[in-house]
């Protein structure tokens, strides 16, 4: 602040929050403060830190000397809460109130996510399939228009370039809620053959009115896995561009006008028929995803398990208990080693 001038507010985490509190106590003027995981007594944290790393008393003493010289204060003056334990124990009523606040916040979050998803599902209610990914803690302007310009370029040249990216990436157009791409003879977002939405709040919606295998009433699990990878690739790309690294929710809606055969492939022989899925609308969800942290396989396992269960099969046999890729799936992916789904699950060639 000595270099840049006064601050309207400060957001700080952990010991940074302790440092800001100490500065405010020493006379720093700030209108608003936001602390995350602030320690009431930094000394307690430092002692635990030293014990965990096995630091000797001599090292701790030297660290203290250098620290006191730098901040021009004694460590004894640092506790931010006047309590012998460094924290205030919560009463039973305070604990109950905290739980109620957490529950209310969770309900508000669920309602917000459901509203965002339902509005897009309603728009594409005639679609055969929809994949919708929505950030838990998005904001009305999470995605900046410049992010989408770079995203469209990535669609045309990146992982999905030889898949759907070179088509949908060229057709992204601005509308009030963000950006949409529609393809096919019908350019109406409600009825277009293929639809991609990248909303300003971070929601991604990939949808199609026709699926490979429709003519033979066959749902290809490998084809579905490929479409899932497409959505997760988009999520991963936007995570970096929007600097949002929080959790997302993934929703999959599948509308079958008739009973379909679940098979390995929709239109490539041998089809490898696995079971029958009755006619109906199926809503599947993976409630918390972050492909940059967990990878694609774990998310694919959770979603495909639900699809396979619709066909009366307990779980998808292509993944182990910890989302290990099975030998049969690996063999299938190795045949198309340069495809987006193979690179996502097996790594780059």
Could you explain the architecture of this structure?
- This protein has 349 residues and is α+β, with helices and mostly antiparallel strands.
- It has a domain of 221 residues.
- 42% of the residues lie in helices and 19% in strands.
- The chain has a 7-stranded antiparallel beta sheet, sandwiched between helices. A 3-stranded mixed beta sheet has the order 8-10-11.
- A hairpin with a 4-residue loop joins strand 6 and strand 7.
- Helix 5 crosses helix 6 and helix 5 packs across helix 7.
- It starts with 8 loop residues before the first strand and ends with a helix.
- 31% of the residues are buried.
Compute the CA-based radius of gyration: 26 Å
Largest sheet: 7 strands, antiparallel
Please give the alpha-carbon distance between the first and last residues.
Answer: 49 Å
Structural class: alpha+beta
Overall mean pLDDT stands at: 85
Shape: elongated
């Amino acid at each position: 602040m000595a270099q840049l001038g006064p601050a309207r507010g400060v957001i700080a985490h952990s010991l940074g929050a302790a440092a800001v509190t100490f500065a405010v106590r020493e006379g720093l003027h700030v209108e608003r403060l936001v602390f995350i995981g602030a320690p009431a007594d930094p000394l307690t944290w430092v002692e635990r830190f030293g014990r965990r790393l096995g630091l000797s008393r001599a090292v701790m003493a030297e660290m203290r000397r250098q620290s006191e010289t730098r901040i021009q204060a004694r460590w004894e003056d640092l506790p931010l809460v006047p309590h012998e334990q460094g924290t205030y124990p919560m009463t039973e009523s305070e604990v109950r109130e905290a739980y109620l606040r957490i529950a209310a916040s969770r309900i508000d979050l669920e309602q917000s996510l459901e509203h965002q998803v339902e509005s897009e599902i309603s728009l594409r209610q005639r679609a055969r399939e929809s994949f919708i990914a929505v950030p838990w803690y998005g904001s009305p302007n999470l995605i900046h228009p410049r992010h989408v310009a770079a995203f469209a370029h990535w669609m045309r040249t990146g992982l999905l370039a030889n898949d759907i990216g070179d088509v949908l990436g060229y057709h992204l157009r601005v509308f009030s809620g963000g950006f949409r791409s529609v393809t096919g003879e019908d350019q109406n977002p409600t009825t277009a053959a293929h639809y991609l939405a990248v909303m300003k709040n971070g929601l991604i919606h990939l949808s199609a009115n026709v699926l490979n295998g429709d003519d033979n009433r066959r749902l290809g699990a490998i084809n579905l896995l490929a479409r899932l990878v497409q959505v997760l690739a988009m999520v991963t790309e936007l995570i970096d561009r929007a600097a949002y690294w929080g959790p997302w929710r993934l929703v999959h809606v599948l509308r079958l006008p008739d009973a379909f055969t679940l098979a390995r492939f929709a239109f490539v022989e041998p089809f490898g028929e696995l079971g029958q899925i009755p006619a109906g609308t199926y809503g599947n969800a993976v409630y918390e995803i972050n492909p940059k942290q967990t990878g694609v396989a774990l998310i694919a396992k959770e979603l495909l398990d639900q699809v396979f269960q619709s066909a009366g099969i307990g779980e998808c046999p292509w993944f182990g208990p910890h989302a290990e890729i099975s030998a049969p799936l690996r063999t299938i992916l190795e045949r198309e080693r340069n495809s987006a789904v193979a690179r996502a699950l097996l790594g780059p060639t």
